[in-house]
Every structure is written in structure tokens, then in C-alpha cells.
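Z., the sequence and structure:
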Amino acid sequence: MAHRNTRPRARKDDLIIEQVGDETLVYDLRNDRAHCLNPSAALVWELADGQTDTEAITEEVREKFGPETDPIIIDYALTRLGRAHLLEAQAGAARSGLTRRDVVRRLGRAAAISLPLVTSILAPTAARAQSTIPDATCGQADTVGKCCAGTGKKCRNRGKSGFDCNGNAC
């Protein structure tokens, strides 16, 4: 296992962190990516302080989520957090190639429900986010050529047929 006996450190700079329900939302200002961490991934990220090794992180996660927590789950969480650039780069740190499929194969399908999840999306730039219009307003007050929010295509004038959101892609 690639992460055994390491002391991972969570990246905390250039991030906006918000707790929403039992999930942790993290917006990365460096690369305009938004990440959603489920409770187990958030706990691993919180415990990755650069001082605590993976064995101790595993024990903490076991206390919260149950003694059946396998160390491979911690490795998987660290892999996902690393791929999301939410961990500090460590010289000589091994990168695990663990996939969800690998973990499910080893632990069984029942374990898949409790796997740490880090879901990431690329956030639009502020200009792009503001440049969309609701599809229903296509054709009203200077909206031709603007991007329709629902279709991702530009509002177009079809002459006698009216306006629609089926123009060129935005």
C-alpha cells in the first residue's frame, strides 16, 4: 500500500472551506475546482496534519466509522485527496494507483457504500457564469447570441419561427 507510514499534510492555503450538512465543500482558488468530500473523506483530510501517520489516521477513522475500516480505505481516501490537489506535495511520497474498483474488489460491494468520496468539478469563471441567460428569456431584450443556461447553446433568431436556444455551442 503506497501510503503506509506516511504523514500526509492537507493543503489549507488558497481554499475556501464550507461545511454543508455532513459534507465538506472545498473551493480551490488555484485551479477553480470545487470538491465535495463525504464524511469519511473529510475526516481523513482533517486528520492529515503532517504530524499524524496513516496508521494513526486509520485508528481515528475506525473510532468514528467502525472497527471494520480497512487500511486500504485510508489509502484510497489519500489517493483521491491527492488527485484533487488537496494534499501538500511531499518529497518522495509514493502515489497510489488505487481505484474504487480495486477497493471494492478487495473489500466487497458492501464496502463501496462507506468509501471516502471526493467529487470534483471545474467551476466556471465568473464571466462565464454570469453570461448565461434562462432559456425562457431567449429573444427578449438583447439576448440573441448569449448562452442559454439549460442547453449550453446560444440564443438564436429563427426569423418567423421565433427564437430558440439551439444556436452554436457556447
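The mean pLDDT is 81. Helices lie at 39-47, 54-65, 71-83, 100-107, 109-112, 126-130.

Let me know what you think.
H.
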